[in-house]
From TrEMBL:
Chief location bin: mitochondrion
Keyword terms of this UniProt record: Electron transport, FAD, Flavoprotein, Mitochondrion, NADP, Oxidoreductase, Transport
Record-given protein name: NADPH:adrenodoxin oxidoreductase, mitochondrial
UniProt pathway: Steroid metabolism; cholesterol metabolism
Subcellular location per the Swiss-Prot or TrEMBL entry: Mitochondrion
Cellular compartments per GO CC: mitochondrion
Iron keyword on record: no
EC number(s) given by UniProt: 1.18.1.6
One Gene Ontology molecular-function label: oxidoreductase activity
Family of this protein: Belongs to the ferredoxin--NADP reductase type 1 family.
Biological processes annotated in GO: cholesterol metabolic process; metamorphosis; steroid biosynthetic process
Species classification: Eukaryota, Metazoa, Ecdysozoa, Arthropoda, Hexapoda
Residues where NADP(+) binds: Q176, G177, N178, V179, R220, R221, E232, G386
Gene3D superfamilies per record: FAD/NAD(P)-binding domain (3.50.50.60), NAD(P)-binding Rossmann-like Domain (3.40.50.720)
Length: 466
């Protein structure tokens, strides 16, 4: 067969289910379903497709659009981080991968159905909830989660009506992780810097009317336990027109501990100390105010109360002293949490993740026995920590386990499995996503942005041609 014929065949097969027949050999095609098209899902698919010849990988994704938190979490002013999308796109275009967008586990399809239709199922549906402080008044209008705020500026369908109240001078962010710093940066960045990013148009409009001048970033522990990393702090310190103010008492004795610290922690601490020493030299009409050793205690209109804490073996222990911070808006940024979307999943409600040992899902926590053919990777399995590279390494390891279990017959692949039957469902294929992508990029180009995201599911489906 000539190269042209091969290419035509490949193109034709790419969009039709017929292509799957070609790869069937004497033994049944191994069918693997991955639930969730975020980094964990795509990295796992990449390794499985590389290691197993006679296999088909189907990716089932709740939203019409792929990429999970790379699209809806990573800050708009970090476009370089989103380059991983190019790798994911290459994986998605592999002739043995099919993308089923707009199909949600637990709503459109059950885990039982997927298990009947695949030899192995890998859950990578991430963490779509957030942890709560469990304080009275937490459900008040002036308290919102950082997760919702991030989803709002990043255009997650359903988040567009959040309407955060940016009419006050003081914002308090509870928690000092990188999500908290992302949110602080979005609130304090000059609008012009955001206009050329893929920040949603409605968020840019709301930020243009923002009266926010002071952002407190409050941690319950000390500078040596801060969860943000050096790159993110550096970006804050470089923000034009923003004066970073530390409290010198928070750093008492910290310099004496520098030599005992691991290198990344040491460099981060040195940067904080340098910034503390230089503070006041840069004038700015806005202020970034990191505050340590304060644990959330109470919420009341216009302010938040914190217990002053002391460190005991790195844990924050509240003292009887308190401090109140003027807080027109409070953003809770204390971590994400996964949810159990199907009753068939052995879920650890307390820790907010699926019970597993190295990615193999347990039948139940008590027996400790593995459920053959069922796996978990990404934040759903590890809990909501780590950057994309961490997620990648974890997903590669679980994908390798799946391949090993299949090749050693720990997973039964002797009988043929049909794969997902999408009949009657409004499925967005990879071609459908490409249409959305082209549409968004063209809409963004007209405004000098990399893309203008569609934020409405029906509109996504219309553009995808579904
Ligand atoms: P996700 O990315 O959440 O992917 C899960 C996918 O599953 C989603 O597409 C979701 O729609 C889908 N899904 C959910 N429910 C269902 C269902 N029922 N059925 C089917 N599909 C479903 N890391 C960096 O390296 N650099 C950064 O700058 C960075 N910024 C971040 C900013 C924020 C605000 C956050 C929260 C994280 C950031 N991270 C960053 C970390 C990074 O995003 C994670 O490591 C990574 O996204 C985790 O991947 P995942 O596949 O486990 O989950
Ligand atoms: P995180 O890094 O785990 O930080 C959570 C913060 O909340 C910590 O400061 C923690 O303090 C605090 N906290 C937790 N429970 C609390 C409570 N009950 N009361 C007060 N404070 C509490 O989580 P995250 O910021 O959501 O980030 C998740 C992951 O995504 C991280 O690995 C992060 O690096 C990654 N991420 C990376 C980037 C980037 O690379 N630019 C951007 C965003 C996110 P304690 O330490 O005291 O528990």
């Amino acid at each position: 067969m000539g190269i042209n014929c091969l290419n035509i065949l490949r193109r034709g097969l790419h969009t039709s289910s017929a292509r799957l027949q070609v790869i069937q050999g004497a033994t049944p095609t191994k069918r693997i379903c991955i639930v969730g098209a975020g980094p964990a899902g795509f990295y796992a698919a990449q390794l499985i497709l590389k290691q197993l010849d006679n296999c088909v990988v189907d990716v089932v994704e709740k939203l019409p659009v792929p990429f999970g938190l790379v699209r809806f979490g990573v800050a708009p002013d970090h476009p370089e981080v989103k380059n991983v999308i190019n790798t994911f796109t290459k994986t998605a275009e592999h002739p043995r991968l099919r993308y089923f967008g707009n199909i949600s586990l637990g709503t459109d399809v059950s885990l039982r159905e997927l298990r009947d239709r695949y030899h192995a199922v890998l859950l990578t549906y991430g963490a779509d909830q957030d942890r709560e402080l469990e304080l009275e008044n937490e459900q008040q209008g002036n308290v919102i989660s950082a997760r919702k705020f991030v989803a709002w500026y990043n255009g997650l369908p359903g988040a567009e009506n959040l309407a955060p109240d940016l009419s006050g001078r003081d914002v308090t962010i509870v928690g000092q992780g990188n999500v908290a710093v992302d949110v602080a940066r979005m609130l304090l960045s000059p609008l012009d810097a955001l206009k050329s990013t893929d920040t949603t148009e409605y968020a840019l409009e709301a930020l243009s009317r923002s009266q926010v001048e002071r952002v407190h970033l409050v941690g319950r522990r000390g500078p040596l336990q801060a969860a943000f990393t050096i790159k993110e702090l550096r970006e804050m310190l470089k923000l034009p027109n923003v004066d970073t103010r530390w409290r010198s008492e928070d750093f008492s004795g910290i310099d004496l501990q520098l030599d005992k610290l691991q290198r990344p922690r040491k460099r981060l601490t040195e940067l904080m100390l340098k910034s503390l020493k230089e503070q006041g030299r840069i004038a700015g009409s806005k202020q970034f105010l990191p505050i340590f050793l304060r644990a959330p205690k109470a919420i009341s209109p216009g302010e938040m109360e914190f217990s002053v804490t002391e460190l005991q073996q790195e844990a924050a222990v509240p003292t009887t002293s308190t401090e109140r911070l003027s807080s027109h808006l409070i953003l809770r940024s204390i971590g994400y949490k996964s949810s159990c979307v199907d009753t068939g999943i052995s879920f650890d409600t307390r820790r907010g993740r699926v019970h597993n040992v190295d990615g193999r899902i347990l039948k139940d926590d008590a027996s400790g026995k593995v459920d053959p053919g069922l796996y978990v990777a990404g934040w759903l399995g590890t809990g909501p920590t780590g950057v994309i590279v961490t997620t990648m390494n974890g997903a590669f390891a679980v994908a390798k386990t799946i391949c090993d279990d299949i090749t050693t017959n720990a997973v039964d692949t002797s009988s043929a499995k049909p794969g997902y039957d999408a009949d009657g469902q409004r499925v967005v294929t990879w071609d459908g996503w490409q249409r959305i992508n082209d549409f968004e990029c063209a809409a963004g180009k007209a405004k000098g942005k990399p893309r203008e995201k569609i934020v409405n599911i029906e509109e996504m489906l219309r553009v995808a041609g579904v």
